[in-house]
Design brief:
heterodimer; A: 496 residues; alpha/beta; 24 strands; 32% helix; globular; B: 557 residues; seven-stranded mixed β-sheet; six-stranded antiparallel β-sheet; 19 helices
Chain lengths: 496, 557
């Protein structure tokens, strides 16, 4: 396998089979993964082209933009709105520190949205320039695969361009989906939520994932009434159960109305807004109904069926550990492969692809200990295993260290909101298997911890690190006593 | 063998069992004669059947020293440990010693926000006059910057938020009282006897607290440090950091003399609370000892927020005008019209009037108590931790020293505090976080290093439009790829650096940083995505050893 890749990696080999390609690599999709892969491949000397749909904040089959979801409709605009919303809480907290804030505080949504759009337009330009500077040829239009080495780009004016390429990389990302309920066209997805003309006074959100809780926090922070509906008992399925409870408590504490175990049945347009009917017969009025009910890979319009690229049941492009599809010349990375749908993971996959295909260095992305964050207010950040995962996989005992504390800032502000930190440790090896935190600055704090976990740091190494005082982060190195000891699931089985 | 058994015996004196035995022994019968009368092995078996392993040299040497001093005449002590000073180090040491079974007393001066010869308070500098109140005021002062930022995010105020000084100070003091109470409770709950008053050592085993005498097998000095103001004319008009944390009203314009972390932190606090702030430093730059690039960057950021720097100026006198305003006279001239002049010109150990000279505890010329790596002074029954020893004056280091002391003396586990890769923060605005070596130190110690830097405008600043920037740097050993130093200045730096300190403590390589996936979008992710060195520093001319290594490597191919 690796030998074959090395041969592929030799650029001169494009002539070996006597075929002359227009490009060594053609990338479909100019988001985080596609742009990274293009630039790095060009850096290895490959002749690279990339196509992307025309720029628009709200994506569709015909609209997108260089920068992709992260820059235009995801991480970046979301974080900007989270920053904006965080000031709402800060204004309250400032009072006990002696600040007399006039009751008449005005929040101007339009101004924030306009500045947000300015910023993403700027970033879109930067992405384009980066591509040009690395010698990548960019095309605007919709890309389709017409053969194992053939790509067709339909430009805005309808003209079609055809290119041949030694390798084709699919990096088309994913898109928000809507639930099939009556009146679903009255609702919006996260794309539109990041570009609303008016700030909603009453928001109803359906979904329990990170997008749902982030928007709940954003709108609530700006003063809206927010009702959050999700199927499970707590939001954020897949995260550590204890941390889910903390997030749930914090969302409630910040004034978000939670509706666990409930679904939306129908949306009806009225003069006063959208009438929302729930599955248990409740009715409420909303200015905005947000569906945060998952995302689907953008694989439909690529003509993959005709070329024979295999998809899984969810529509994700199937790839091996080197991101290669079943067609040897076609590769795929990022959300369209639905592995771990995070920008830095797409970057990692893009880099590994370039190294493998053009750098003579077959590289597999490493999915262990990938940290991530939920930018709820306050945020959650985790790395490694949750307690449940650790117990499930353990042959021996798992030690859980937990620290629940009132952040120093709250001692004066009076805000009733505890920060919670957690370390999950293998009792036998002392290795830290998982770390989690919910509280202000959690994502900034976890990043460094993630390096330690990635390298198999032990609890003893955490303990031997001196704290930075006074900080919240120092709690991670001062958790002295075990909160509980849990027998691993595999251990129990062998005992039986 | 016999020596180590005797050694063990005294170490175990903290245990309730042995303590009771000791107390039952009449004064006339020394412990030594007791040992002589019994078979050592039986004694050991009787008292400590389970702990018959783990002797090693450091412990033995303590015991031999301890014995040479007090072995001749053993007495019934009031306490196994008497701690003078209930700050971070003293409280930690006392609690842990008590947990090991020792009977412990601790003395501390009465509570006051401003320390003096007669006032202090349980909690010490960190809780009452340092880290905690400082950070609370940093929080308070940072809001003005938040308000400014928030404009860029669509927030508007009909009138600019005004700050009420007295609300802040009252709430801060209520919190300090609460914390001091918590410290007292913690001591009580661990069974430590708290004695209010001024402790003074009268002999190697006796402490005098306001006329009352207490005897102890071990005495721990953890009296901390105090601001130092040079003796210049007009000194009486000057405030120190203790007073600066508890001013009755807002200073209109304040001169801060000094370039250390305390000076820059208070400059940020007063600037955020809308005082006019001038910093006077003798050197060209603030924060001597910090990484040079960090020093430049933080000054630049502070200047942009309105703090005025006067460099190369040494204070000579403070003059009070008839209208009450203060002038600061320096070697370069006189600046008039200050409402306050604060000196942040260093701190000195609180070791005067402790009776140290009488018992023969050695101190340095600055007054710091001289200790060995186990925090042991020149007098075998007397130990010292924290700022009084002037090693690395940080709360978590005092905690580490206190913990190591208790383990060594009462836990039968001789433990040295480990001063490598101790992270620290400066709560300037923006704040600094750092761990490991500065570039200058790294060049000196390792010669060949790679320096990775990032200087950028954070996402928040692109919207706020403020000139806030972030600077970070990694210093990597060119030969081993180990990360030697990490420095950062910008919002959240102290929180960000803590986790990286764990990685540095584990001696991780730059490759480990690179292998870690970022958390997007954060500031911290930049530290795992630094791909290209800003510069490579190589010892020049190349030394012979290096050439040899290269030729060897070539031969391997």
């Amino acid at each position: 396998m690796s030998r074959k890749m090395l041969i592929d990696g030799e650029l001169s080999s494009s002539n070996d089979d006597g075929v002359q390609y227009d490009f060594d690599l053609f990338v479909i999709g100019g988001g985080s993964g596609g742009v990274r892969a293009s630039r790095f491949s060009a850096g290895f000397g490959a002749k690279v082209a990339i196509c992307e749909l025309p720029f628009h904040p709200i994506s569709s089959e015909l609209l997108g933009g260089f920068g992709g979801t992260c820059v235009i409709r995801g991480c970046v605009p979301k974080k900007i709105l989270v920053y904006g919303a965080t000031y709402g809480g800060e204004l309250q907290d400032a009072r006990n520190y002696g600040w007399e804030v006039n009751e008449k505080v005005d929040f101007n949504w339009k101004k924030l949205l306009q500045k947000k759009t300015q910023e993403i337009v700027r970033l879109n330009e930067i992405y384009k320039r980066m591509l040009t500077n690395s010698g990548v040829k960019s095309f605007e239009g919709e890309g389709r695969i017409t053969g194992p080495h053939e790509v067709e780009v339909t430009q805005i004016d309808g003209t079609k361009l055809s290119f041949s390429a030694k390798h084709i990389l699919i990096a088309t990302g994913s898109r928000a989906q809507r639930p099939p309920i009556p009146g679903q066209e009255l609702g919006i997805t996260s794309d539109e939520a990041l570009s609303l003309d008016e700030m909603p006074k009453r928001a109803v959100i359906l979904g329990g994932g990170y997008i749902a809780v982030e928007f709940a926090s954003i709108w609530r922070g700006m003063g809206a009434t927010v009702d959050l509906f999700f199927r499970k008992e707590r939001p954020l399925r897949g995260f550590d159960d204890e941390m889910r409870t903390v997030v749930t408590r914090n969302l409630e504490g910040r004034g978000i109305n939670l509706h666990p175990g409930k679904n939306l049945k129908e949306l009806i347009k009225t003069d006063d807004g959208i009438k929302v009917l729930t599955d248990d017969g409740e009715e409420l009025m909303a200015d905005v109904v947000l569906f945060a009910t998952g995302r689907i890979p953008n694989s439909k319009r690529l003509n993959l069926g005709a070329v024979g690229v295999q998809l899984d049941a969810a529509g994700a492009v199937k790839v091996d550990e080197y991101s290669r599809t079943n067609i040897p010349s076609i590769w795929a990375i990022g959300d369209v492969t639905n592995r771990i749908n995070l920008t830095p993971v797409a970057l990692m996959e893009g880099t590994c692809f370039s190294k493998t295909a053009f750098g003579g260095q077959p590289s597999k992305p490493d999915y262990s200990d990938v940290p991530c964050a939920v930018f709820s207010i306050p945020p959650l950040s985790v790395v490694g295993l949750s307690e449940q995962e650790a117990v499930e996989q353990a042959k021996g005992d798992i030690l859980v260290f937990n620290s629940t504390f009132n952040p120093m800032k709250n001692t004066i502000s009076g805000r009733q909101e505890k920060s919670v930190m957690k370390l999950v440790v293998d009792a036998e090896t002392d290795k830290v298997l998982g770390a989690a935190m919910c509280g202000p600055d959690a994502p900034e704090i976890i990043q460094g911890i993630a390096i330690a976990l990635k390298c198999g740091a032990t609890k003893a190494q955490f303990d031997s690190t001196v704290g930075i005082h006074p900080s919240a982060a120092e709690e991670f190195v001062t958790m002295r006593s075990v909160t509980r000891r849990v027998a691993g699931a595999l251990k129990l089985k062998t005992n039986l | 063998m016999a020596a180590s058994l005797r050694a063990q015996k005294i170490t175990f004196s903290s245990s309730t069992l042995l303590r009771n035995i000791c107390r039952k022994i009449p004064n006339s019968l020394s412990l030594r004669s007791l040992t002589a009368n019994f078979s050592p092995i039986i004694f050991k078996t009787l008292v400590y059947p389970s702990q018959d392993r783990g002797f090693f040299n450091p412990q033995r040497s303590f015991m031999v020293r301890a014995e040479s001093n007090n072995g001749e005449e053993h007495r019934d002590f009031d306490f196994d440990l008497f701690t003078i000073g209930a700050g971070s180090g003293g409280v930690r040491a006392s609690r842990l010693a008590a947990n090991y079974g020792a009977s412990v007393a601790i003395c501390e001066l009465p509570f006051s926000t401003v320390a003096s010869d007669n006032a202090g308070g349980v909690g010490g500098t960190c809780v009452l006059r340092g880290c905690v109140p400082k950070k609370l005021l940093v929080y308070a002062s940072k809001y003005s910057h938040d308000f400014e930022e928030s404009h860029g995010f669509g927030w508007k105020y009909e009138s600019d938020p005004e700050h009420d000084w007295s609300t802040m100070i009252a709430n801060k003091n209520a919190e300090l009282q609460r914390l001091s109470g918590i410290y007292q409770n913690t001591l009580k709950n661990t069974g430590v006897t708290l004695i209010e008053g001024r402790g003074k050592i009268v002999d190697p085993h006796t402490v005098d607290v306001d006329g009352k005498l207490y005897t102890a097998r071990h005495i721990l000095i953890s009296v901390g440090g105090r601001p130092f103001i040079p003796d210049i004319p007009g000194r009486e008009y000057v405030i120190d950091s203790d007073m600066a944390l508890d001013l009755p009203s807002k200073p209109n314009n304040i001169a801060i003399v000094g370039g250390g972390y305390i000076a820059v932190e208070f400059a940020g606090i007063f600037n955020g609370l809308k005082s006019e702030v001038h910093i006077f430093i003798r050197q060209k730059k603030v924060l001597r000892g910090f990484d040079e690039e960090i020093r430049d960057f933080v000054s630049e950021q502070m200047s942009l927020r309105g703090i005025e720097f006067h460099t190369g100026e040494s204070p000579q006198a403070v003059i009070r005008a008839p209208d009450g305003s203060l002038s600061l006279k320096t070697n370069k001239g006189t600046v008039d019209g200050f409402s306050h002049v604060m000196f942040a010109t260093g701190r000195r150990p609180n070791t005067k009037n402790l009776g140290l000279e009488t018992v023969g505890v050695k101190t340095t010329k600055n007054g710091a108590i001289e200790v060995d790596e186990y925090s042991w002074t020149s007098v075998p029954s007397i130990w010292a931790v924290g700022d009084a020893t002037g090693r690395l004056n940080l709360t978590p280091v005092a905690l580490m020293e206190g913990g190591a002391f208790a383990k060594t003396v009462f836990g039968n586990e001789p433990t040295k505090p480990d001063y490598s890769a101790v992270p620290s923060a400066v709560f300037s605005q923006p704040p600094i976080g750092q761990v490991g070596l500065t570039e200058e130190q790294a060049v000196q110690d390792y010669g060949d290093i790679d320096v990775f830097t990032a200087y950028f405008r954070p996402l928040k600043a692109t919207l706020s439009g403020l000139p806030d920037r972030i600077f970070m740097k990694l210093i990597v050993c060119a030969k081993t790829n180990k990360v030697l130093g990490l420095h950062m200045c910008g919002e959240d730096s102290p929180e960000i650096v803590q986790g990286f300190a764990v990685a540095m403590k584990a001696r991780l390589s730059k490759a480990a940083f690179d292998a870690t996936v970022g958390i997007h979008p954060t500031v911290a992710e930049e530290l795992v995505t630094l791909r290209t060195p800003a510069r490579k520093i190589r010892k020049s001319p190349p030394v012979e050893g290096k050439a040899d290594a290269e030729s060897k490597a070539a031969a391997d191919v």
